[in-house]
Amino acid sequence: MGKPCIHCGEDCGKHPVLWDDKPFCCNGCKTVYQILNEKELKQYYQIEKMPGIRVETEPVGEKYAYLDLEEIKTKLLDFSDGGISKVNLFIPSIHCASCIWLLENLSTLHSGVINSTVNFPRKEANITFKEDEITLRQVVELLASIHYIPEITLEKSSEDPTKKSNKTLLLKIGITGFVLMNVMMYNFPEYLPGGELLENDFRRLFGWLSLALSIPVVVYTSNDYYLSAYKSLKHKIISIDLPIAIGIITLFLQSAFDIITDTGIGYIDSLTGLVFFLLIGKWYQGKTYQALSFERDYKSYFPIAVTKIVDGKEEIIPLEKLAEGDHILVRNQELIPADSRILKGDANIDYSFVTGESLPVSKEVGDLIFAGGRQVGSSIELEVYKAVEQSYLTQLWNQEKSADKFDSRLNTLINMVSQYFTAIILAIAIGAGAYWLFIDKRLAVFVFTSVLIVACPCALALTVPFTFGSTIRQFGRRGFYLKKTDVIEQLNKIKAIVFDKTGTITQNKALKADFIGEMLSDETILKIKSIVRHSTHPLSAGLFLSLPGNDFYQVDNFKELPGMGITGFIAGSRFNIGSKKFVMGKAEEELGLKTRVYVSKDAKALGFFQLENQYRQGLGEVISDLKTNFELHLLTGDNEAEKQNLIPLFGDESKLQFNQSPTDKLAYVKNLKSDGKTVLMVGDGLNDAGALNESDVGITIADDIYHFSPACDAILESKQFMNLNKFIRFTHTSLTVVRISFVISFIYNIGGLYFAVSGLLTPVIAAILMPISSVSVVAFATFTIAHFARRNLSFGKN
Amino acid sequence: MSVIFFLIAIGIIVAGGFLAAFIWSVKSGQYDDDYTPSVRMLFDNYAPEDDHVQEAEERKPENASSPKKNSKTSNRNNNKS
């Protein structure tokens, strides 16, 4: 066990890279340390221990050359004037206080940077810089040099509307709170015994003041409720907002009548209190994961610009200008932007984002390749044969969300309850009003309005935001991020679960490596591991993870030959690791279903590793647990090689579908839905995008939640996959809590109705009843959810 | 008792002032990020006295191993007026 790297905390192995007597795991980390050390930014290492990010990439080179293009620059910059520009960059690797500190001191690293501000929850850095001293490209390269690599997309931060509505909501809460506090003060004398002794002048003044203050509440802060009640009425749905809107308006009219006719002080305190609680509920429910994106489309995954070859010269053009027939150059680690044909070079395409398959596929000149893959190895030249929008994969994105998905979302529990609720309340109000017409005509209207006032379903409307809001928070702490609260209700209705195979139920990075050949000593295995550690190739990374030990050897003369393999010396002996052709000198024979990596020591072949994707930890338990309650399906684009392993897991052979194209997957989900089943799709790659979109709930499994994932309803951290069943089961608990809260609030309503129907609803009773019912329901919902989360989701927080 | 009218007027004005302050703070974006400022305020005041120092690429291990307090001398890439 070596020392931890000063920069990133990674184990340095036996032979750390030393600099200034400090151990580093790699040269990349050392370089960043040197840069920071030189600019006297070492405080970075004091705020948090080992805060750095390990990045294994080659020099940036021309990677960011496109940022010099004027048209791309204007799209990215927030503001540009007189040589001073502002840009907002999304940097997923921001993770601690040191990151904030360093990024906010960027001006020390380069004088061209005027100012930089970090927004930690959004993982964004807002950088102001002088264009004549530093270009946008240099800013990005500067960030990359200290391993804070920004993710650049042309999609203008799509969260802007939510940001604005969040601001409006805060404003509304503030205004309502202000009115509530003042009105409560004016009404306070009325609540005390002897309040009737208050001079009439005061009573009148207080009444009129309350009325005046309540106008912004009735007109502005509660306008959402009128609007949404009206909208759902137009769709012939009685939503919970309708009785709320009726309640608010009746409260206001009754109070205005009381105050104007000088018969009382009205119910303005209840009215404002009600709106205040409702807005708080909305705010609580509106908690979002700002740095996560559930709506990304292919545009945020694809490159912004591509290198086009015109008359033998390279030219950088924006992606949208790419046309059919163009010749393009794709370098190592770059994405294939459009379906194209290979003209030149050894293509070795890593489709892990598309299919979840981490092993690269090699292609020959003349082959067709689909957009979305990443080239690993040397540069290749391609001819585009389909425009970006018409590419096979991008078309999947362009499909509209099916209409019934929207419909089913409206068909929520709360709307069903409120239909009956509204009808019953209206019946009671009219009935009680009619009854009093015969007994005491003066009270009839008062009783009618009292019923509407007291029945205003404030507590009822708060149960869902608080129960689901707490559930979302509890899930989020455990690595399961929901887009919105209504996903919880959808999850609860799930009948069938469809899994993708590669990358979803198998691990993305980790591979199972079986060595076939002569027995390797532990020492040799460690030597092989020390060599593959220096390579960024997915196979090397997979091999590195699957081999034991961490006492690394010093590797000399390490070389990576793209498309061939890697080579290096340890203690004088030469190791070659890679393809058969490279290691054994013989051409690759026809491959079976599995990938092999050959190894030789001093030109003597040792054998080969047979690599297979490994199933996720706990897969067996999750599947067998889910099997008891749900119908399970498996869709995969792979061949039937693993069928025998999967049958015991899933049981029913007919539900395992192999060789499925992305469109097949989509059709399969559609088919299940047309059988009347509520479908949960669990996937990970771009090829699942269509199916994720079509299903009732789409969950994406992601190793790194801040990196790209296809549009979905929820993101699940891959290490929490084994708890998927517990999350789904917990939604039942949430729904039960909602139902119990409904009962509690009904009890309050019935109690209130007693006063209302008998014509005894005074402002005091209303002012006591309403807050008590709301607060108790809110407390019940939040505490029970927290309690059950502790008990049933006890697999720890991360 | 008429002093109460006066007090109420003052009460509304004071509370209104706070409301105005709140509205201003929301509009100026102080609630956009409710986490970073809490971290930022704990950083020691670091005054980059010399914000124009040499380019990062031109560093040499030996000169950086003995960090100089004043790297102004080595500033050559800046023509900042």
User: What share of the residues of chain A does DSSP label as strand, in percent?
Assistant: 15-25%
Q: Give the class of chain B from helix and strand content and strand pairing.
A: mainly alpha
Q: Low-confidence parts of chain A lasting 5 or more residues at pLDDT below 50?
A: 402-408
Q: Per CATH, which architecture of the domain at 499-677 in chain A?
A: 3-Layer(aba) Sandwich
Tally of contiguous helical segments of chain B: 3
Average pLDDT, all residues of chain A: 82
Regarding quaternary structure, what we see is heterodimer
Rg from alpha-carbon coordinates of chain A: 32 Å
Beta strand count of chain A: 28
Round the Cα radius of gyration of chain B to an integer and report it: 26 Å
Number of helices of chain A: 29
For the termini of chain B, the CA-CA separation is: 68 Å
Per the CATH scheme, the topology name of the domain at 499-677 in chain A is Calcium-transporting ATPase, cytoplasmic domain N
Apparent shape of chain A = elongated
Q: In CATH, what is the class of the domain at 499-677 in chain A? A: Alpha Beta
Largest interface: A-B, 43 and 39 residues
Distance between the termini of chain A: 25 Å
| CATH H-tier superfamily of the domain at 499-677 in chain A | Calcium-transporting ATPase, cytoplasmic domain N
Q: Which range best describes the helical content of chain B: under 10%, 10-25%, 25-40%, 40-55%, 55-70% or over 70%?
A: 40-55%
Looking at the structure, what is the overall shape of chain B?
elongated
